[in-house]
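ok trying this again, last paste got cut off
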Amino acid sequence: MNKSGILQFIVCALCIYFASQVFAKPNIVILVADDMGWADVGYHGSKIRTPNIDRLQQRGVELDRFYVAPMCTPTRAALLTGRYWSRFGNTKPSNERVLPWDTVTLARAVKEEGYRTSISGKWHLGSKPEWGPRKFGFDQSYGSLAGGINPWNHLYKHGPYSKTWHRNDQLIEETGHVTDLLTNDAIRFIKEKKDKPYLLYVAYTAVHTPFDEPAKWLDRVKNSEPERQQYVACLEHMDNSIGQIVDAIKEEGHAENTLILFFSDNGGTNGDDSSRYPNTNTKGKIKGLNEPLRGWKGEVYEGGIRVPALAYWPGELEPRKINTFTHVTDLMPTICGLAGYKPKKDLKWDGIDLWPILKRKSDGSKERLLYCKGVNGTNSTLHKWPWKLIVGKSKDQLFNLSKDPNEKNDVADTEKKKLQELKKFLEVEVFKDNDDLP
């Protein structure tokens, strides 16, 4: 072989090598339910039929102690930054821009590693088009810039952000049920023929109020409690949509190289008011169920912040249940590790890389701390297994979750030494808050 031939051989070999490195990076699909209660998923014993979510749980890794914020916007900020929401001064749903312009989001990080990125669903980190997902690393964006919306007319609450339905950060009008539209858009993205790995974030508005399910789904749930029929139909509709997304991944030949993550953005609601949404037919306050956990969405008891969650990757992750603390802030470090992204500066992640835990290389640290600032900063929590501290305007509370997982017995008065120890840890976390305010 002459020199020219040798050079061509080397070039071809290098091309094959670098191509294999690109394809070796996994696709990432993040599926997020909105306001789904702990007790409203089939694998927790619910009568609601969620066979597709249950199948992912049975064949994947169940994250049994997975924590989020007590409300939507904070959880979404944490997912996309790997940091507690209070680091950005956010503790409640927000239509104002939450993240500083230069934030290294999950989407921006993996784009640097050759990923294409898309969000289908609820953004709620800034409800003006100029604050939309494409300004924070997403190649494609579709759905609600604001929060939960009317399923058919796609309007948010009465007010300046009511018109919120968009594509690529441009407001549009469109017909169809929100769950179907988001699912179809996600499948369209999966089927795009491009030689790049992808990050797909599907943020459903189900099962957030207001409800208005098609007859097809209501007819399936006629035997449910009358006041919950819309909720049950909405959740079964979403579960079916998740099945469609998983099927599309398989049909495209991506199953063996795709990590699917699923969780709810907070605990089930005690009943949000549907009248705040324009032209809403379904009235009344429909509750989620969090039993046996205590509390609701908006509260820092376990029912508000501990949610169903799982990781699924056939052939890569062995089916099992993990009982150690995991957190929504862990997902960015974990995904970045899989994508090969190495931060150029300290991103101050509060989360950890879960991959060693998911792969049985580590059991997780029992010394780990989890911090949560509640809605409007009225209270804060600190987990340090098996203890949970709640500090607010009223009396401090302390629970031993190994003996009292449902927080029925406050032991703050009898465990004063432990109470003071945890309050010192909490002070350190509170001190770090608001350090990334724009």
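PB: full thing came through this time. The CA atoms of residues 101 and 136 lie 8 Å apart.
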